TrEMBL record:
Taxonomic classification: Bacteria, Pseudomonadati, Pseudomonadota, Alphaproteobacteria, Hyphomicrobiales
Record-level GO cellular component terms: cytoplasm
Protein's name according to its UniProt entry: FAD-binding oxidoreductase
Highest taxon of source: Bacteria
A GO molecular-function descriptor: oxidoreductase activity
Domain FAD dependent oxidoreductase: 33-385
Gene3D superfamilies referenced in this protein's UniProt entry, alphabetically: D-Amino Acid Oxidase, subunit A, domain 2, FAD/NAD(P)-binding domain
Pfam families: DAO (PF01266)
Amino acid sequence: MHEPRAAEKDTPYWWEASPLKPLPQQTVPKKLDVLIVGAGYAGLSAGLVLAREGRSVAAFDAMNPGEGASTRNGGITSGTIRPDYATITRRFGEEKAQAIEAEGKIAREFLYDFIKTEGLACDFQLVGQFKGAFGYEQYETMARSAETLAKRLRIESYAVPYAEQRSYTGTDVYRGGTVRLDIGGLHPAKFHAELLRVALASGVAVHARTPVISIERDGSGFGVVTSAGSVQARQVLVCTNGYTDGAVPFLRRRLVPVRSRIIATEELAPDVMARLMPKRMMMTENRQVGFYYRPSPDGTRILLGGRDSSRVGNPVAPKLMLRKGLANLFPELESVRLSHSWFGNVAMNRDMLPRIFEKDGVVYASGFCGSGVVWAPWIGMHAAHKLMGNHERARTAFDFRPPASIPLYRGDPWFMPAMIWGYRMQDRFALWRDRR
């Protein structure tokens, strides 16, 4: 057997059908109603709302718009909240936990309606999501949770016993799982390109490759220094996430960039896809550091992602780890060629909740914790209404105090490899305990 190869390309698979299109450089305005830092999903969504309400608004991005996580993610509309209901209740109270859980349903429904209403051509398909269980005890717990979710929020969610698992996935690794039918998939680069299109058409000025250097209070507004000149802005909205830099040190001390890597297979035969992904669902696992995977929008490939503990460069080891994970799930793909492997930064915070908050007059919309396809547009638009004083439309369970800062952290996540290793050990112990 030959040694498995790394992927043919180190750029996102999504860029094949929707390549990044650099915007022309433009003159920086002297004055603005609202200056937005970041032109990903959150920044563009906020800008769209503001511009349509007659505000002069410009978004500044240090890279090409969308070059970060907005065109590198898996395109799964999960809207996952990392802490479970009990943990949120213990930390913030039951009222907050109920509001957060309910808002997830509303945010997904809003996204689907937004895509339809705005005519965003992004290959969206509401196919559902299967979540695999490791061990029968875990399956029983997940089955009860699915039943509770269906009763409490009227989301179509149900358990899939091991005997029926092959109708949903072509792997025998799991011991059953659960399904949610309110989750789908889209093409993330096309979604960003379409969002950029409607934002520009609505009057949002987008400045590419123009990093913000500093933000200072200046009378009733702000003086913002960018690489292309200074701007006087009445209000500032920061929508950076996994690529937050030193221009916003308060946020940088609270968000940890974590690499998430995805591999894409070569095109697979139709009978192979039908066997391995029979319902074309989005797929995930009940582990702290598990895999997520899905068919490509055209149904010809499998894309699989997971956390990457590397911090610099583009090492081969994480690619081979994902390849090994793919082969473990689907042994017949052990020798399959990988067409693409890439990574992007997601942003985690100490309580693992997205949020809107205000500090010294600057509004922040950030911390999407790996679920930005749903949360970034939702949080960005609510932040825009907050800036305009539209209190009812700005109302959200995610508008509360800033996340806590991380001791001894100033932007270099030196501790992440050890943390990911620890999570993997916890997963192994949980698997051993459940399968005794």
